[in-house]
Amino acid sequence: MNLVAIVIATVCAGIGSVWVAALLLRLGVRNQPDQPGHVGAEHLLSLAAGALLATAFMHLLPEAFESDIEPQTLFAVLLVGLVFFFLLDKAELWHHGHEHHHALQGGRSDAHQRVHAHAHDDDSAHERAHEPSPVPSHASAQRGGSWAVLTGDSVHCFGDGIMIASAFMADIRLGVVAALSVMAHEVPHHIGDLVVLGQTSGSRRAALVKVSLAGAVTLLGGLVGWWLVARLEGYLPYFLAVASSSFVYVALADLIPQLQRRLGARATVTQVAWLLSGIAMVMLVSRAAHAGH
After folding, report:
1. Residue 132 is assigned to a structural domain of this protein
2. Is residue 122 a part of any domain in this protein?
3. pTM of the shown model
4. Per-residue pLDDT reduced to its tens digit, 110-136
5. How far from 188 is each of 72, 94, 245, 255, 288, CA to CA, in Å?
6. Which residues, other chains included, contact 144 with Cβ-Cβ below 8 Å and sequence gap of 6+?
C-alpha cells in the first residue's frame, strides 16, 4: 500500500507540478502581483514557503521526536542537514532562485534585474554605472544554462522523492501532507524552469518535455527512498529530520529571500496572506487526512 501511495504521490509532485506550472503560464500567472486581480508567481512562492515551513515544524519534526531518540541528536541531524543543503546550494545543485527570479520579473533583461536586485543598496548608483553588458551573460546561458537548470532540477527532484517516501513510511497521512508541500514548492519553481528553458531552447514544447523528464526523477527518488527506509526502519526519525532540514532550507534560503523586496502596504498584506494560506492549507489537509483515517 505504501509503495503504491509513494508512486502516485511522487508522480503528482514531480510530473504533475510541471503540467500545472505550464497551465498557469498559459493563464498568465507571470503577471506582476501588484496588478489588481492577478495572481503572480510571488504569490505562489509565498504559498509554497508557508506550506514547507508548516510541514517541517508541525508534522515532520514532531513525528521524528515521537521516537526514543534523544532530541539533542535529532537537532544535530537537523543542523547537519541544513549545512549539507547549503553545500549543495554552493555547488548550484539545490538552489533555484535564479530561475524563480526570471519568472517573477516576467522576462525583463538581465541588466534590469540586477539593478532592481540592488536597489536597496546605498551604492546602487555606483553599481549601475559599472553594470556589465547583458550580452555575455545571455550567451553563457544559451551555451550551458539549460543543462545547469536540468541538472539542478533532477537532483532536487530526486531528493524530494526520498523525502516524500520517508514521510509515507512514517504515516500515510504525513506522506500526503509532505507531497502536497513539495508540489506547492515545485509549481512556482517549474514556472521558472519553463521560462528559462523556453528562452534558451526557443520551443515551449521542448522545454515542457525536458522539465517533465527532470520532474520524473521524483519517482526514482521515491522508489529509492522506499527501498532504503524499508531496510533502515530504525533510522526513520533521522530521515524525517533530514527531510525537515530540506524543507526549512528551501523556504528560508530560497523562497523567502525572493520575497524580501520593498512593497506597498496592500501588496505586503497580500504576500503575508498567501504565506498564511500555505500554512492553513497544510493544516487543513492534515486534519482532513486524520479525519478520513
Report:
1. no
2. no
3. 0.77
4. 433 433 343 444 444 444 444 443 433
5. 35, 15, 20, 10, 25
6. none
